[in-house]
């Protein structure tokens, strides 16, 4: 039995399109875009911070690692953080989503306001700071995901 495995821990994964090309209905990016088309004022949590991670980049970098082969992987077995470069609050992420929206003319939103997590009670308690340090992954594999802002720009270009 081969016990070689890699475990990649990630954060705030998003995507914009299904394999059939239609827009996904759930996920933070799509929710912000929907809200912006329905409301003049958006309140977004500003005290939760993590690494926005584009699913496409996560899949591509995982494929690059796997393509190196079984022996390569076996020598590097372990748990690694693998998430978008840098970190942001949900508020900062939402602000950039709105700026990069290729269909800004459809937005009704006039005001984006920061809000504390306590204003949005949920059954699940979320840590305020959950950004992942991906230095171990980068040092081991010589690869790193792009900065979250650059990845979001590329993802939003897909909508054009």
Q: Provide the spatial order of strands within the biggest beta sheet.
A: 1-6
Task: Compute the separation of the termini in Å.
Answer: 47 Å
Strand-and-helix sequence, N→C?
A: EEHEEEHHEEHEHH
Radius of gyration: 18 Å
Largest sheet: 2 strands, parallel
Number of strands: 8
Mean pLDDT, rounded to whole units? 93
Shape: elongated
The percentage helix is: 25-40%
Give the full name of the CATH homologous superfamily.
NAD(P)-binding Rossmann-like Domain
Residue ranges: pLDDT <50 for 5 or more in a row? none
| Beta fraction | 15-25%
Topology:
Blueprint lengths: L5 E4 L3 E2 L13 H11 L2 E5 L3 E2 L2 E2 H13 L2 H5 L3 E4 L6 E2 H11 L10 E5 L19 H7 L6 H10 L3
Parallel strand pairs: 1-6, 2-5, 3-8
Antiparallel strand pairs: 4-7
Can you characterise this structure?
- By secondary structure, the protein is of the alpha/beta class.
- It has one domain (6-157): NAD(P)-binding Rossmann-like Domain (Rossmann fold).
- 36% of the residues lie in helices and 16% in strands.
- It is built from six helices and eight strands; from the N terminus they run ββαβββααββαβαα.
- The strands form four sheets. Strands 1-6 form a two-stranded parallel sheet. The protein has a two-stranded parallel ribbon with strand order 2-5. Strands 3-8 form a two-stranded parallel sheet.
- Helix 1 (28-38) packs across helix 4 and helix 4 runs parallel beside helix 6 (148-157).
- The termini are far apart.
- 22% of the residues are buried.
């Amino acid at each position: 039995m081969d016990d070689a495995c890699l475990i990649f821990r990630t954060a705030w994964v998003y995507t914009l399109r299904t394999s059939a090309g239609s827009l996904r209905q759930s996920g933070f990016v799509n929710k912000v875009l929907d809200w912006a088309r329905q409301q003049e004022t958006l309140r977004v949590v500003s005290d939760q911070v993590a690494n926005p991670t584009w699913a496409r980049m996560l899949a591509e970098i995982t494929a690059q690692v796997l393509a190196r082969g079984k022996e390569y992987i076996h020598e590097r077995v372990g748990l690694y953080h693998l998430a978008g470069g840098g970190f942001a609050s949900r508020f900062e992420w939402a602000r950039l989503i709105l700026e990069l929206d290729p269909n800004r003319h459809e937005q009704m939103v006039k005001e984006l306001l920061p809000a504390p997590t306590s204003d949005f009670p949920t059954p699940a308690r979320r840590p305020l700071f959950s950004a992942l340090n991906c230095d171990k992954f980068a040092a081991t594999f010589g690869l790193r995901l792009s900065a979250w802002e650059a990845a979001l720009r590329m993802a939003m270009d897909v909508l054009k």
